[in-house]
Write a structure and sequence with these properties.
The complex is a heterotrimer of chains A (411), B (245) and C (409). Chain A has 16 helices and 14 strands. Chain A has 411 residues and is an alpha+beta fold. In chain A, a hairpin with a 2-residue loop joins strand 2 and strand 3. Chain B is α+β, with helices and mostly antiparallel strands and 245 residues long. In chain B, a hairpin with a 4-residue loop joins strand 7 and strand 8. The N and C termini of chain B lie far apart (64 Å). Classes of the chains: A alpha+beta (411), B alpha+beta (245), C alpha+beta (409).
Chain lengths: 411, 245, 409
């Protein structure tokens, strides 16, 4: 860019404080709003992802090959100890929880409730399964427990049992034999949803092994420190364990949830597009307004020799400069707000009254915004593009106007 | 003439009432009442619910604890339907569509044929003598017999913490009250219609009434039975299953 | 006085066409976009409710007392009298019966668990029925439809003969042979995984429950009035002793889902509105400040400050209203257009599944934006007020200036 135009542009900006201020403010507000909306949308997605994973699905899971299609809880890992060891040693793993599942009946007298009994490692489960932390009576399972059981409140109600009661657990064991065992209720979990309560029936691994007569493990579920890294982590883990077992990612485990998230992402993009348009229009029209009122000024410039392409350059330069400063303003304004959103979140619980359960998970309606590296480039891009586009018509308009005409009448 | 002393002795015995039974022996007898190495029987099962009454007449062959064949004789709509159990496997033969279908393990839990009996009632080898500690509770005048209290031994796997058993003077069960692990009465089983069956004199009718479920009960009645009979080798086979009986 | 202000304002606006057009466009486009967003939000909400109440749930359901708790096979009720009475109600768009019976199926000797779903083929072939994805194939007599996942898991194909064994409502053993007439992908996950769709009368015969069923599914002409419809149906004498519930009572968790989505989108709507307002305000402010010279001229020529403010206010009001109305017209037209064609998210965002499944339901990603009068009125007022205020403040400021200062600007 030629120096003269640039100099003029910069001086123009510096001279007209109010105009500059208004322009920058307008751009800044627009950008910051865009920032907040984007942060919110991304945070919304994370909300669903976290809820799903922490409700027991996990981020990664080592399963027997073929389980993905058959989903038979009686299948066992080909190399359970190996899988567990490798899983725990994998970098980025927060916790690896081994499990055994079995379709069973829990009975007290003539009251019977069908459940999916889950054999777990109590300590690992505390970190991997959020309902382990929602024990409202008694306690969660202890390492070293034997013959103990933690059940959902709805199950306890249907059976008419309390802490300390012994239930008869019946399942179909090895090669079809009907096996039973007594399990003592040591903890009752209240998830907040009856549907979910019915999924809570956890006992120590050893008890499930004995009951089903099938040793080993049915799965090892992993929680990662960064849930987004599951693809890379899967590749790493699959390479370290044998081919007898398969590592599945969270989207493969809960396609339902992923579908919803994808749809939500798509809709969010639509939203972003709309708000982007709104911001663009706002910025553009403000810029246009300012340029329209400067016909005289441009006429003078034109008469003085800065016309045509050079004038265009001036206007464009002004626009870009304003855009950059506006972007900074946008970051200053929206940045802290987005940070606040990311850390405090927007709590809709009061509005909605409670948390919600569906699809096998409980969702606390608190949205934590996303605060990441994307903020910087996105803000600058939007601001500069908006002002550049906004400056095009005025630039063309300014270049075209006939100086004599413009100077003749103060409009 | 009978000596006065004998008369007096006799009178004394009558006045004192019958002596409390040997509990252990009694329990062993209860366990073995219907048990045998093999058996063939015809039975009637009536299931009553608040909404319907249904009666099945069946013929059953058993060998040991692992093999059983049940063929439905009535009602006509279901006549010929058969169920074969060999070890852990269960098959149904359906004559109407001429198909044999194996029941998948997941469907083996739950009630047996819609009755109040559960599968582990029938499949489990439960033994009063082995699993419970019994003692005499009190005498019953009408019907004449003894009330025994059976407490489940610690470590026993089962639904019942306590069973109250009324045994008649003829050493046959009259009533069983099952209490769950919290001591609540869960169901009552009554035995009556004592008659000769397969060389034994046993109650031929059992009625099971669950507690807290008004209008529901299951009755099982032996029409005829033979115990410890010789059974042909191929009784418990799929091919035998498929032949209409 | 007012008359001349109006005339003056009008002339001002007319003379400075570019400025006027610019302001109109800024206000109008912003308004149009806010309305568009609002329409999308509302359409999305309607769509979610539509999907949720779609094939499985309906708007109102009728069951025998206690059936929802234990799903007992014998908790049936005669359906012809209630259906006749229900179909007589004007608010009812459709009503039909269903049977649900867990059963055992077998192709060879190995049995597998499944769920027999007895349906009225004519009713379920409609847009909201279970058979909507069945390509016109419907079950009748011995010909049944099988859910895709169930078919794949057990090696069933069109033409396969499958034995079904279940328990009749009278407790008897129900069994018969059926032929697979089609393999379907219904909107309901459960049906795809475990369902065998059978004609209702055939199911009634198989399960020894003539003229009876487990459930009635009703659709209302106006989904928003489901609760009232449920009350009206429950009051019918033929429905005495039966349980009648609207979909919100049956699936409160799905209500929650819709609510969460609505609330978070409304949050975004507020932000969109703020952005629009900021844009409009920016434009009006900028525009007015840039006219300082011109306004100073007017002051110098003897116009009183009060008069000036009034002039500017009238201009802003005219602009605001005109812009907002034009924008509403445009926004309304856009929404109407989108409503006609439907918005398919997959196409819009370029690729991705056109059908997704969630909460056991499968639905297509096309929804229909719509607006209510309330939406339009609120945004009109909002934007108009904003543009007015945005012109007012600088007007007051300029009016207070010394003419010479103003002229110098």
């Amino acid at each position: 860019m030629a120096t003269a135009e640039l100099t003029y542009a910069v001086r123009s900006i510096r001279r007209n404080v109010r105009r500059t201020f208004l322009s920058v403010l307008g751009i800044a507000i627009g950008c910051s709003l865009l920032l907040i909306v984007e942060s919110f949308n991304r945070g919304k997605n994370e909300l669903f992802a976290r809820a799903g994973a922490e409700s027991g699905t996990g981020h990664l899971r080592v399963t027997p090959a073929g389980w993905r299609v058959k989903r038979d809880p009686r299948m066992r890992l080909a190399a359970p100890e190996e899988a567990l060891r490798r899983a725990r040693a994998l970098p980025g793993v927060a916790v690896a929880a081994p499990r055994i599942r079995a379709q069973a009946l829990l009975a007290m007298g003539t009251h019977v409730v069908p459940v999916e009994l889950t054999g777990v490692d109590p300590a690992a489960e505390l970190l991997a399964y959020r309902y382990a932390r929602k024990v409202t009576a008694g306690r969660w399972l202890d390492p070293g427990d034997a013959g103990t059981l933690a059940i959902g409140r709805a199950i306890a109600d249907r059976l008419g049992v309390e802490l300390g009661d012994e239930l008869l657990a019946t399942t179909v064991g090895r090669s079809g034999r009907i096996e039973s065992a007594m399990l003592r209720v040591v903890g009752i979990v209240t998830t907040g949803s009856e549907e979910l309560d019915l999924t809570v029936s956890h006992a120590p691994l050893a008890d499930l092994e004995r009951l089903t007569g099938l040793g080993g493990l049915g799965e090892v579920t992993l929680m990662l420190s960064d849930w987004r890294s599951f693809d890379a982590a899967r590749a790493a883990l699959q390479g370290r364990i044998g081919s007898g077992d398969e590592v599945l990612t969270w989207p493969e485990l809960a396609p339902d949830f992923v579908g919803h998230m994808k749809q939500d992402t798509d809709t969010s993009r639509l939203v972003t597009a709309i708000i982007l348009l709104v911001v663009l229009i706002g910025v553009a029209s403000a810029q246009l307004a300012s340029v329209l009122e400067r016909r005289r000024e441009f006429a003078v410039l034109s008469a003085l020799g800065m016309h045509g392409v050079r004038l265009v350059r001036v206007v464009l330069a002004e626009g870009v400069a304003l855009g950059l400063v506006g972007a900074l303003g946008g970051l200053a304004l929206g940045g802290p707000l987005a940070w606040l959103l990311a850390h405090r979140g927007v709590d809709f619980t009061r509005l909605l009254g409670r948390s919600y359960a569906f699809g096998g998970t409980v969702i606390d309606p608190i949205v934590y915004g996303d605060f990441g590296a994307w903020i910087l480039p996105e803000t600058f891009l939007v601001a500069v593009v908006a002002t550049t586009l906004a400056s095009l018509y005025p630039a063309w308009f300014a270049a075209r106007s006939d100086p004599a005409q413009a100077l003749r009448v103060a409009q | 003439m009978v000596p006065l002393s004998s008369l007096l002795a006799l009178a004394a015995t009558v006045a004192a009432g019958p002596a409390p039974p040997d509990v252990d022996r009694l329990l062993a007898r209860m366990d073995d009442l219907y048990r045998s190495r093999s058996s063939i029987a015809r039975m009637e099962i009536t299931v009553t619910t608040p909404r319907s009454v249904r009666t099945l007449r069946i013929r059953a062959w058993t060998r040991g604890e692992e093999e059983a064949l049940v063929v439905v004789e009535a009602p006509p709509r279901e006549a010929g339907t058969a169920t074969l159990r060999v070890g852990e496997n269960l098959w149904n033969w359906l004559p109407r569509i001429a198909r044999t279908i194996r029941v998948p393990p997941s469907m083996m839990l739950g009630s047996w044929m819609g009755t109040d009996f559960t599968n582990d009632d029938l499949v489990k080898e439960s033994s009063l003598r082995k699993d419970f500690v019994a003692k005499v509770d009190r005498r019953s005048a009408e019907p004449a017999g003894w009330w025994l209290t059976l407490e489940a031994k610690p470590g026993v796997v089962g639904r019942w913490a306590r069973i109250e058993l009324l045994v008649g003077d003829d050493e046959l069960p009259i009533e069983e009250r099952h209490r769950d692990r919290k001591g609540r009465l869960a169901r009552t089983m009554r035995f009556d219609e004592v008659r000769p069956l397969g060389g034994r004199r046993i109650p031929s009718r059992m009625v099971l009434v669950p507690e807290g479920d008004p209008g529901k009960k299951t009755e099982m009645r032996y029409l005829e039975a033979r115990f410890d009979v010789a059974l042909p080798e191929d009784v418990f086979s799929l091919s035998r299953l498929e032949r209409s009986r | 006085m007012a008359g001349s202000t109006l005339t003056l304002a009008w002339r001002n606006l007319w003379r400075n066409r570019r400025r006027t057009i610019l302001a109109l466009m800024a206000i109008g486009l912003s308004q149009a976009l806010v309305l568009l967003f609002d329409g999308v939000l509302r359409g999305y909400g309607d769509w979610m409710v539509d999907v949720i109440t779609g094939p499985m749930l309906g708007h109102v359901q009728v069951h025998a007392d206690g059936w929802r708790k234990d799903r007992a096979l014998d908790r049936t009720f005669p359906v012809d009298p209630p259906l006749r009475a229900i179909r007589g109600l004007p608010e009812v768009q459709s009503a039909h019966a269903r049977i649900y019976a867990p059963a055992l199926g077998a192709v060879g000797q190995e049995g597998f668990a499944l769920l027999v779903v007895g349906v009225e083929p004519a009713a379920e072939l409609g847009a909201h029925g279970l058979l909507s994805g069945a390509d016109g194939v419907s079950p009748s007599g011995r010909r049944v439809l099988v859910g895709r996942s169930l078919a794949v898991a057990n090696g069933l194909a069109v033409g396969s003969e499958v034995a079904l064994v279940g328990q009749g409502a009278d407790g008897s053993l129900a069994n018969d042979l059926y032929v697979v007439a089609g393999i379907v992908e219904t909107p309901v996950d459960l049906v795809n995984r475990m369902g065998v769709l059978m004609a209702l009368d055939e199911a009634q015969g198989l399960l020894a429950m003539p003229g009876e069923a487990h459930e009635l599914v009703l659709r209302a002409g106006d989904p928003g009035r489901s609760k009232a419809l449920a009350a009206a149906v429950a009051a019918l004498p033929e429905l005495r002793g039966l349980e009648v519930l609207d979909w919100k009572r049956i699936s409160p968790e799905l209500v929650g889902l819709v609510q969460i989505v609505q609330v978070s989108w409304t949050f975004v709507l507020v932000l969109v509105f703020l952005a629009a307002a900021a844009g409009v305000a920016n434009t009006m402010l900028m525009s007015t400040f840039e006219r300082t010279h011109e306004l100073g001229m007017l002051l110098a020529l003897g116009a009183g400050p009060g008069r000036l403010v009034r002039l500017l206010v009238v201009e802003a009001l005219a602009l605001g209203l005109a812009g907002v109305l034009a924008g509403s017209a445009l926004g309304g037209a856009l929404v109407a257009l989108a409503h006609e064609t439907g918005v398919n998210l997959a196409e819009l965002t370029g690729g991705g599944p056109s059908q997704i499944s969630f909460a056991g339901l499968r639905f297509s990603l096309t929804f229909y934006p719509s607006l209510t009068a309330f939406d339009v009125v609120t945004s009109v007022l909002g934007v108009a007020v904003v543009s007015l205020l945005a012109a007012l403040w600088p007007a007051v400021r300029v009016a207070r200036l010394q003419p010479t200062a103003a002229l110098r600007a």
